[in-house]
């Protein structure tokens, strides 16, 4: 009967070529006689490569190109929403931008209770905001966003909407505009006047007062253009109804 020799641990086979590592040596590498696990090192390198690619991709987003962008997720580029001034057949009036809902207020909103400038002047003592750099900066920002499309950034120039047919608004540097009290300017911004809509439902009260301060800064500049008498006249009085359609 043949005797089976006892099993012994198999010794790793070493390649005769010292420059070629065997399979037992691939999982480790030796630097300065220190064994370093190879797989964690390769994993760390892979992570660094991924981070580098992501960082480079973010950097390329700021570069300008005439070529269409690479769209990885189309739903992020083409969202099911309406843009400002865009039409929407879902609503009966065809407008995507909706009017303020009567009887409602935005969160932290307030009710503007005055219907005439005389009521506002009788109830409002003056601008509650002090003339500070940050207030003027805020007023400029809001004026350029909401007012300049019609009034121009200096309150006097002809804007593109006027060139396209809108009635030119009054020059904010004109004598009658300079003579308005702060309360009257605030009322016009809040409730509107003639073809100008009110912004009480679009701008917080402090932003409207900041615009009043900024308009006063614009009025310190000389008047650049002489207005026609009808446009310069105050169109809020009952005796001047004929000028209503010519001024804003």
| CATH topology name of the domain at 118-225 | Cytochrome Bc1 Complex, Chain D, domain 2
User: What is the gyration radius calculated from CA atoms?
Assistant: 36 Å
Count of individual helical segments: 9
Mean pLDDT reading: 78
Commentary on this structure:
The chain is mostly helical and 248 residues long. It has a domain at 118-225: Orthogonal Bundle (Cytochrome Bc1 Complex, Chain D, domain 2). Helix content is 36%, strand content 3%. It is built from nine helices and two strands; from the N terminus they run ββααααααααα. The protein has a two-stranded antiparallel sheet. Strand 1 and strand 2 (34-37) form a beta hairpin. Helix 3 (117-123) packs across helix 7, helix 4 (133-151) crosses helix 8 (205-218) and helix 7 crosses helix 8.
Keywords:
Cytochrome Bc1 Complex, Chain D, domain 2; mainly alpha; 248 residues; disordered C terminus; 9 helices
Care to give the gist of this entry?
The chain has nine helices and two strands; from the N terminus they run ββααααααααα.
Helices and strands in order:
Blueprint: E1 28-31, E2 34-37, H1 38-61, H2 74-77, H3 117-123, H4 133-151, H5 160-163, H6 175-178, H7 182-191, H8 205-218, H9 229-232
Antiparallel strand pairs: 1-2
């Amino acid at each position: 009967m043949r005797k089976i020799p006892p099993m012994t641990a198999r010794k790793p086979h070493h390649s005769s070529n010292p420059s070629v590592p065997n399979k037992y040596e691939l999982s480790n590498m030796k630097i300065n006689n220190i064994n370093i696990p190879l797989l964690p090192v390769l994993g760390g390198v892979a992570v660094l490569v991924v981070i580098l690619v992501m960082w480079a991709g973010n950097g390329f987003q700021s570069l300008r190109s005439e070529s269409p962008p690479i769209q990885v997720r189309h739903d992020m580029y083409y969202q099911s929403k309406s843009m400002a001034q865009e039409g929407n057949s879902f609503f009966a009036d065809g407008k995507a931008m909706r009017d303020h809902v009567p009887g409602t207020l935005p969160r932290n909103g307030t009710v503007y209770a005055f219907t005439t400038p005389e009521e506002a002047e009788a109830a409002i003592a003056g601008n509650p905001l002090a003339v500070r750099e940050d207030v003027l900066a805020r007023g400029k920002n809001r004026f350029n966003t909401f007012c300049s499309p019609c009034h121009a950034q200096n309150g006097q120039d002809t804007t593109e909407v006027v060139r396209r047919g809108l009635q030119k608004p009054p020059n904010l540097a004109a004598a009658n505009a300079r003579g308005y009290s702060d309360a009257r300017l605030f009322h016009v911004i809040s409730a509107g006047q003639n073809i100008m809509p009110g912004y009480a439902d679009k701008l917080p009260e402090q932003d409207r007062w900041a615009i009043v301060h900024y308009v006063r800064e614009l009025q310190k500049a000389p008047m650049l253009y002489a207005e026609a008498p009808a446009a310069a006249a105050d169109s809020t009085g009952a005796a001047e109804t004929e000028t209503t359609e010519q001024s804003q």
